[in-house]
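We modelled the chain as a single entity of 82 amino acids. Its sequence is:
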Amino acid sequence: MEFLREFGNLVRTNRKVLDYSQEKIAEKADISSRHVPNIESGKCDVRLSLALRLADCLDIDLNGLKKYIKCDENGNYGKDLL
């Protein structure tokens, strides 16, 4: 779940840097504006497709989040990827 909190922080920070309202980023990412506060607070699960859309809209580099992605000893990613 730490990934979701960190991703939410990045969304909020980059949205503010770009001076976008929650409504504007919701429109750009094609999601409900009610969904954005939950993403920013890390309270909801985010599908990879949505994470990529938000990253694209907000110019977020997802490489910094790799440390929060857990995989097993075989290199397989578990449920807490996103």
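As a brief sanity check on the tokenised model: The chain has a mean pLDDT of 85. The radius of gyration is 13 Å.
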